[in-house]
Design brief:
Elements: H1 18-25, E1 62-68, H2 71-78, E2 84-92, H3 101-105, E3 112-119, H4 126-137, E4 145-146, E5 149-150, E6 156-160, H5 163-178, E7 189-192, E8 196-198, H6 206-209, H7 214-230
Parallel strand pairs: 6-7
Antiparallel strand pairs: 1-3, 1-6, 2-3, 2-8, 4-5
Length: about 250
């Protein structure tokens, strides 16, 4: 998608209204994010938990890589999940040479905006991360887009690191489709992780650092509200941030 669809870090999105800016300014403290009335919340899906988790025997810190639209919101949600040690915005699916925002956002690469999650399997399972991903993080039935962001770089994709992750996500997708958990079939790609390249520093912790930015207020803060409301046991008020300078308002 072009830069007109989603702003750079210092450019206000013209297509959004002043109401969104006021909504972001109305957020309260580190304890919770509130979305005031008048700001539409992004839909979340109530879905069953995964019936099978082939990664259940994992020990030590583990890694998961998910793509689900703009990485600002994906990172922002997983940073607020108990058991997640770090969530980094970046790019997967393309070459090192093309792993930069200008090329990816222009659709000139095979990358997807993705988030690499480091987590403790003793505190949160891979299956639970998948449940959050398919429920509150994004809409897995949208092909090559999420909300206003359009293009294959905004595709829904799970980049698995081993056979256990691959089998877990494939079985979960089959389970959700069989249960008709969504009005349409899931279009999420399930592909091996070849590499993950962290995004530029200004993209890290973007949701936390820019709560009044119109895009964040309109499309991403509702994801945090949905996480807290639908998964209170997984929600953490203090996010696992990448940068030391990132502080909640």
């Amino acid at each position: 998608m072009t830069s007109a669809s989603r702003p750079g870090p210092s450019t206000a999105r013209r297509a959004l209204t002043i109401v969104c800016m006021a909504a972001g300014a109305a957020l309260i403290g580190a304890a919770a994010f509130n979305v005031p009335s008048g700001v539409a919340s992004e839909a979340a899906f109530k879905i069953p938990a995964a019936a099978v988790d082939e990664t259940g025997n994992a020990t030590g810190m583990q890694t998961a890589v998910f793509a689900g639209g703009c990485f600002w919101g994906v990172q922002g949600v997983f940073q607020r999940v108990h058991g997640v040690v770090q969530a980094v915005s970046g790019y997967s699916g393309g070459s090192k040479e093309s792993a930069n925002y200008d090329m990816v956002s222009a659709g000139r690469t095979t990358h997807a905006e993705a988030v690499q999650i480091t987590y403790d399997p003793k505190k949160v399972s891979y299956a639970k991360l998948l449940e959050l991903y398919f429920s509150v993080v994004h809409d897995p039935t949208q092909l090559n887009r999420q909300e206003p962001d359009v293009g294959p770089h905004y595709r829904s994709a799970v980049f698995f690191t081993d056979a256990a992750q691959q089998q877990t996500v494939q079985k979960y997708i089959a389970q959700l489709d069989a249960a008709k958990a969504y009005p349409k079939k899931i279009v999420t790609q399930v592909v091996p992780l070849t590499a993950f390249y962290p995004a530029e520093a200004y993209h890290q912790d973007y949701l936390t650092l820019n709560p009044t930015q119109p895009y964040i207020a309109r499309y991403d803060l509702p994801k945090i509200v949905n996480l807290k409301t639908m998964f209170p046991q997984q929600y953490r008020a203090e996010p696992a941030l990448v940068t030391a300078r990132a502080k909640l308002p």
